[in-house]
Design a protein that fits this description.
single chain, globular, TIM Barrel
């Protein structure tokens, strides 16, 4: 979504923001007491860059576009250019997140294999050297900006190596874990390890949507609430000045090539619950009432996907329609196609393939199927209109194709088979 220029222009999404739009977003953020921290992937999760043929030669492993080859001078120049262009539109940013999580297949490229055969060279050293180079690039050009980095590639590196790398003086690690069964004691020990290595400031990262299923359509609020409350318990175990804050991630995809997970309007109640719980130290009745007031929901349920009333927050119409479709569309079609006695008994897959049906059964099945299709088509048209008010056309098309069309197509196929079977001429037995 960033409007990269020059050689990097090919990285732009079709609907990328314009520079004036980014300035407007930053202005609105300031008006609402929000501070923007840009994030640019610079090591792993580089699919949006390395999928392009013109940049594929910078992959760590030729077949996979997710990880950058840290040995290539051109690779560091590439991420340097990305960082510089983003920083140019975010002047004065106090922090800049350089990513560096999930650097899969690191050390498995041909250049890395040869490099690792040399004495004292390890994957940990390779990883640290690239992160350090990226951090130094940020600090050399923006000395007042502090680089943040995801911590998963650092967790297993021994304390002495982390300390000796010089990285603790350059970056602030963001410890992430999105599980509802967080190991509070283990995370406290990890914070202490980083502190001993020389990191003066740490961050935690939870989630308010995403992280619970790659094609998840509805947000399980209770899962995310538990995750955030447990991060509060971790924070309470460390020195007061060590943990700087909690980053509430809100995933839209698991990676660049995966399907959409929960849409933002669907996750807003979870965001409100998690934010208020972090601010007030837990989810009390007072916090629940505050969230309900913010959202215009009379009775917010955090243990299931149904809340009384649709709410009045922006996007609440999308939440209500997505919830209705997610809970009932597929199950209602399944009920007709798989459990209705007339369909399963007189128009089974065997009958459908051969276009065989007793004429009276058409009168039992067809009205039900037509009614069901008409009802759901009306709901889908309403959702489609609501989605178009918020999302770009390609996102609307993708969500409907993934979550709606398969069920509607099953109904349409049943009706088509019915029409063909009803119109087929009956076979007449003839004497030999």
């Amino acid at each position: 979504m960033f409007p990269y220029e020059g050689r990097l222009r090919l990285l732009r999404a079709k609907h990328a923001y314009s520079p004036p739009e980014i300035r407007e977003i930053l202005h609105l953020a300031t008006l609402n007491q929000l501070e923007v921290i840009p994030l640019v992937q610079t090591f792993g999760h580089m699919e949006f860059v390395l999928k392009h043929e013109a940049l594929a030669h910078l992959r760590e492993v030729a077949l996979f576009p997710n990880t950058l080859n840290p040995h290539e001078a051109e690779a560091l120049a590439l991420v340097g250019a990305m960082v510089s262009q983003v920083m140019e539109l975010h002047p004065g940013a106090r922090w800049f997140h350089v990513g560096c999580d999930e650097v899969y297949y690191l050390g498995e490229g041909e250049t890395s294999r040869r490099w690792l055969q040399q004495e004292h060279n390890t994957k940990a050293r390779l990883c640290l050297s690239h992160i350090k180079a990226v951090a130094c690039h940020v600090l050399a050009r923006h000395p007042a900006t502090r680089p943040l980095v995801w911590d998963d590639m650092l967790r297993a590196i021994p304390e002495d190596q982390l300390s000796a790398s010089g990285l603790p003086q350059l970056v602030e690690p963001v410890l992430w874990d999105y599980g509802a069964d967080l190991d509070v004691h283990g995370k406290a020990l990890l914070m202490e390890k980083y502190r001993k290595c020389g990191f003066l400031r740490l961050w935690a990262a939870s989630a308010f949507k995403g992280a619970t299923g790659v094609s998840q359509a509805l947000t399980p609020i209770e899962h995310h609430l538990r995750n955030n409350v447990q991060w509060l318990q971790v924070a309470a175990r460390g020195p007061a000045d060590l943990l700087q804050g909690v980053v509430l991630t809100g995933w839209q995809r698991y990676d660049h090539f995966s399907v959409l997970c929960e849409l933002l309007p669907v996750g807003i109640p979870s965001l409100a619950v998690c934010l208020q719980s972090l601010l007030h130290g837990g989810f009390t009745e007072d916090v629940k009432a505050k969230v309900e007031n913010f959202l215009g929901i009379s009775n917010l349920e955090i243990t299931d996907f149904t809340s009384e009333g649709p709410g009045s927050f922006p996007g609440s119409d999308i939440l209500a329609l997505v919830t209705h479709i997610s809970l009932h569309l597929r199950s209602s079609v399944d009920a007709l196609l798989e459990r209705d006695r007339y369909v399963s008994g007189w128009f089974s897959p065997y009958h459908r393939r051969r276009r065989l049906i007793h004429p009276v059964m058409v009168q039992h099945i067809q009205p039900q199927a037509l009614s069901l299709l008409a009802r759901w088509s009306a709901v889908v048209r309403e959702l489609e209109a609501a989605l178009h008010r918020v999302f770009y056309p390609d996102a609307v098309e993708e969500w409907l194709e993934e979550n709606v069309q398969p069920s509607l197509r099953r109904l349409q196929a049943l009706l088509q088979d019915l029409r063909e079977a009803a119109g087929a001429r009956p076979h007449v037995a003839q004497d030999p």
